[in-house]
Amino acid sequence: MKKCIWAMLALFLLAGCGKGYVRPRPDPTPTPVPVETPRPTLTSTPAPAPTPEPTHAPVGFEMEIGDGEHTFWVEVVDTGEPVVDCNKLLVNIYQDETKDERFQTFESWWADPYGLYCFPVADMDFDGDMDFSICNQEYRAFHWCSHYIWDEKQEQFVADPYGLNDLLDPHFDEERQVVRSNSGGWRGETTTHYQYRKGSLVCIRSLYYDCSVDATAMCLKVKDEIDGELTTVYEDEIPLGELPKGELWTEEFERWYDLNYHGE
């Protein structure tokens, strides 16, 4: 009897458990999220700056000194090498255009970003020998120059020994042996005349005209060298409405552009 009861209990338990039992399922394995491995950053050492190459084709010109002995081919090369805010120029002077024999070489400089130059050749110190300058092209109203003077004793060019490089837009009047410099802006201009005295430039006359600050008058001034000093010899302020139409100064002021005029 006991065996029968235990058998029936076992069947009952199996039936009950079989109806309500749900076999546990294992937790699903999570899908692995790919981890991006950072790519190594490639670091490169900057390449050394290349040696500056000429940025413009060499420019050359022939010049005769005028002594019957020396004729040269002058070549100017823009190296492209910056010096402060300028470019370094290399000036090569050859015996002739074949450039077989170099006579002299030296460095110059230029600040023109366009690399435009002109090369005036003139007797700049009025000693009978020709000299030359390196200037920016005359597309501007005024320009600066580097001057190189032929030294008869040394028989070579020397860098400006007189202070010509300090003058803006210099012009050389061989007949009167006068160097003229012009400078100014849209309002006015200063014209200064120099002569050589004992190897130095001496200012002998300065003419200045400029529109007043309130743009109602023209200010005029002339200074002459008297006893070794610049002295004001003419000064006036003319209302713009009183000036002849189209004129910037008076007839009296204009007379002073003649260096032989002294107010007589």
Largest sheet: 6 strands, antiparallel
How helix-rich are the residues, as a percent range?
under 10%
Q: How much of the residues is beta strand, in percent? A: 35-45%
Question: What structural class should be given to the helix and strand makeup?
Answer: mainly beta
Oligomer: single chain
The number of strands is: 15
Rg calc:
44 Å
In DSSP terms, counting alpha (H) and pi (I) runs of 4 or more, how many helices?
A: 2
3D structure, described in words:
- It is a single chain.
- This protein is mainly β.
- It contains two helices and 15 strands.
- It has a six-stranded antiparallel sheet with strand order 10-11-12-13-14-15, with no helix packed on it. Strands 5, 6, 7, 8 and 9 form a five-stranded antiparallel sheet that branches.
- A hairpin with a 2-residue loop joins strand 2 and strand 3.
- The protein is elongated and about 65 Å long.
- The relative contact order is 0.07.
- The N terminus is likely disordered.
